[in-house]
């Protein structure tokens, strides 16, 4: 909860043992890493805005997790969380991001010219292409912790910056609370509208507070560039279009993002970024690039192959249903995207995805003809 | 047991020595609003006007009374435990309400919330409790079950009888704000006291974290088991944190006296049985409550109570007696009569479906209970239910005979 922290001081009168959460049934990164000794060492700390250890871990306590899916189980309330609670978050980050060490440096590369190919994914298989990331505005608390005043200030800044975009990025902002029914229906039909979070993973961390105050959606007139304001992060930036021209999608993504960053800087605000963690976002799983680049692709035969999961793993890709995370695939159409976020640059991740999709389509074509794909199985990337 | 709790709370615990059954006048005096010291002021980066919630689409008691001026006055304050206005109103901000059902829209995080945020809570209480003004009125507490008259209903109509209330342990924060250690202490104190109950009140505690599947199924079959709250009214107030840690259910061997630990309140106390013997249900209720109170006082604890607000609970709607006395009653003919709602209103009763709040009636069977909680004693409210349900049964019988029924006159309001 924002700002007042007499509560944490009061809590310190109880012993660490009395306060330590029961994590015996839990399966998430936080529960794997947190120990009573660590809890004792960190419980008296707070970030300058008053975010405490219990604030960081509440979502992981309330959501024990799933035997098959390992959730993160902790969130950041501000940029400083990653520093003040590094004893907990560094191992969580290392676990979640394939061994990324506290001393590692993350490379940012938003130059679309560095992407090779990607404009030619077979449209008979690739239905749509999309790249998304998140950005946080430095100096403001993040969605789990921000006050209404802060959230509104982030919205105001975002509206001003986005209003300055022009050309094919000319667009309009729709505040969730002022939307007309007609606008709402249009945004739903375009698959742009985001709902109040229902996932207990998000609600337990406080991200749903004051809904729909200061939340909204901006998109360009062409409906190929979209920004969510104050959903799970300050900003989620999405570039998308039908078909397989991932290069064009990534071009627009990089151009748009860079323009937005410039517009924010002109108004005296930077994005949260550092050379160890890259772009800083609410969930530790989205650090680094915060980038998920993917396609909706038809793989009816490949998806039934015994080695499908293994191939995805080797290509560093993940599959989801076409409704996004935690949904099922429909009609053999999958959402395939990069699995990594941190430790690879944006260009590297999109390159891996593009190359991986090309290979999967090749495999699909072989299986259609009844041929074996054994000689196409790649090495682990 | 010399726990760190006894050291922390010693300044409040001396009140336990002075308290009497039914609450302590001394405690009431010492918790008078002037004597409550606030916690560290809340650190703010934005002026109150930038933080004031948007309540234009809202229909709840908090939204009706939280003016920008009151918000500005209270937003920098915190209770000694650090509970803030923003926390108290969060549930009302997040749940705009329903055009037909006016929810309260705020909660208390601790006993002191009712003092520190009185400028908002007093008008909310007044609206919710039919004009009861906490700044000027006193609430009567009366747990003498012998005073109830004609408490045996016609069992051709009344299927079951039930009385419930809540109790909070003074010195520990309430479910929206409590820490894990506090919640576990509530559990320890209550379970320890309950183990001292004897005779027909002898019973057993089932912790939610340690329940076996078999125990769980039995409790579900008995309709005793409570679930993790799903209602956003409760989850937005923070009551479901750390579930199911330190939550549990105690019941006596006869399954007629039941206590929920750390659900929406520290304790919810329920006396129930099949049939229409409301008098016996209430007698057991009062006896059990007094016995539990005696047992916790032996250990140096007491219930939150004061003479303005009666028993202090999480939701302002449950202040005073916290009492809901009700029956499941078959009124198939009356249920179709358009005058039913008016009759209930004037009898100061409310109807619910047989699944409890926000459920529908099935087969003409209603859950009928008292509307009021504050400003009337337990005995008065149970008598209201007894008299009212008897009146409804009379109406049903008259309709069976083809006779007409009358809408009773409305009762007096608080001035």
From TrEMBL, chain A:
Start-end of Basic and acidic residues biased regions: 96-110
Residue ranges of every copy of the Phosphagen kinase N-terminal domain listed in the record: 11-98
Record domain Phosphagen kinase C-terminal: where: 125-367
Binding locations of ATP: 128-132, 191, 236, 292-296, 320-325
Stretch list, region Disordered: 96-122
The reaction(s) this protein catalyses: creatine + ATP = N-phosphocreatine + ADP + H(+)
BP GO terms, sorted: phosphocreatine biosynthetic process
InterPro entries for this protein: ATP-guanido_PTrfase (IPR000749), ATP-guanido_PTrfase_AS (IPR022415), ATP-guanido_PTrfase_cat (IPR022414), ATP-guanido_PTrfase_N (IPR022413), ATP-guanido_PTrfase_N_sf (IPR036802), Gln_synth/guanido_kin_cat_dom (IPR014746)
Protein name, per record: creatine kinase
Organism: Scophthalmus maximus (Turbot)
From TrEMBL, chain B:
Binding residue positions for ATP: 160-164, 223, 268, 324-328, 352-357
Keywords: ATP-binding, Kinase, Membrane, Mitochondrion, Mitochondrion inner membrane, Nucleotide-binding, Transferase, Transit peptide
Pfam families reported for this sequence: ATP-gua_Ptrans, ATP-gua_PtransN
Topology term for the membrane: Peripheral membrane protein
Residues annotated as domain Phosphagen kinase C-terminal: 157-399
Gene Ontology biological process terms from the UniProt entry: phosphocreatine biosynthetic process
EC number assigned by the record: 2.7.3.2
A GO-annotated cellular component: mitochondrial inner membrane
Gene Ontology terms for molecular function: ATP binding; creatine kinase activity
Top-level enzyme category: transferase
Subcellular location: Mitochondrion inner membrane
Domain Phosphagen kinase N-terminal: 43-130
Domain of life: Eukaryota
Signal peptide from the UniProt entry: none
Record family assignment: Belongs to the ATP:guanido phosphotransferase family.
Main function: Reversibly catalyzes the transfer of phosphate between ATP and various phosphogens (e.g. creatine phosphate). Creatine kinase isoenzymes play a central role in energy transduction in tissues with large, fluctuating energy demands, such as skeletal muscle, heart, brain and spermatozoa.
Assembly: Exists as an octamer composed of four MTCK homodimers.
Protein name: Creatine kinase U-type, mitochondrial
Taxonomic lineage from the root: Eukaryota, Metazoa, Chordata, Craniata, Vertebrata
